[in-house]
Amino acid sequence: MKQGESTLENLGSEFHGTWLQLFFLGRIAKLQSRYDEALGLFQNSAAQSAHLKECKLLAYYETGWCHMIMWNWSNAADLFFDLMEEARWSKGFYGYLAAVCFGASGSNSSRCRAILREVPTRIKKTVNIELDSYCSRKSEFLFTSTSLEYECKIAALESLYVWRCLDLSEEQALSIIDTVTRRPGDLKPATLASSYLLSGIAWNALSSPSRARQAFDISSTVQQLDARDDYITVCNLCELAQLHTSLGNAEESRRTALRALQYKGYDLESRLYDRVSSVQVKEEK
What we know:
By secondary structure, the chain is mainly alpha-helical. The protein is built from 15 helices and no strands. It has helices spanning 2-9, 19-31, 35-48, 53-69, 73-86, 91-105, 109-122, 129-143, 148-162, 170-180, 189-205, 209-221, 230-246, 250-261, 269-284. Helix 5 (73-86) runs antiparallel to helix 6 and helix 12 packs antiparallel against helix 13 (230-246). The radius of gyration is 19 Å and the shape is globular.
């Protein structure tokens, strides 16, 4: 990564300060968890590519994720809404992210519900049936929520986790625990399961394996989950396998990963399959 950054910084004068250089420097900064710096680079990249629509939208996409990572929900929502309006593809996905970020902000529930209602109509000729099905179903699920802000925060954090963008620094891990433990009493099973999954991930990041294991176990025992919500159970098993690995329980880790691989037909299966398979591969080495 350092070599790539050095190459980008030493490009010829014709590329210096261009949207392309700024964009990839932003990607590197984001991967290194330098989020404020990445945000500035992506914003400058968007400004430099204002006349190149697709390039500008790429920068919007990364800027939106940076805002989400930093829990700047309203800023993220505005960018994903613009992507829903302007992009040619993935309108349902961008609409879903915009809605959950508006909801998570706690200050724009009416706009959140309006976009949630609109998401299924934004999915036309799909090129990603699995993703579009997930966004459509989750939008309908959240639209009927009686605890919208909380459920949208869980949905936003879940998205960050699934797309490998969840910041697990000590400060953010503590914020996750503080957020998920403020559970209202009328949660739907899927949200309850996700909240304990996120709690376990945060406790594991804080080097508290016993609390992490407890949270994963609770998440896995939540009843009345739709079969398509088995992705939550698969995530639990994946995290639990990694926890066993870190504790030196290689055989238990292998068995847990194999259990995760037995699930089929759940939401986001192809995206999570690689994650679970990588755990198993590590154990076999």
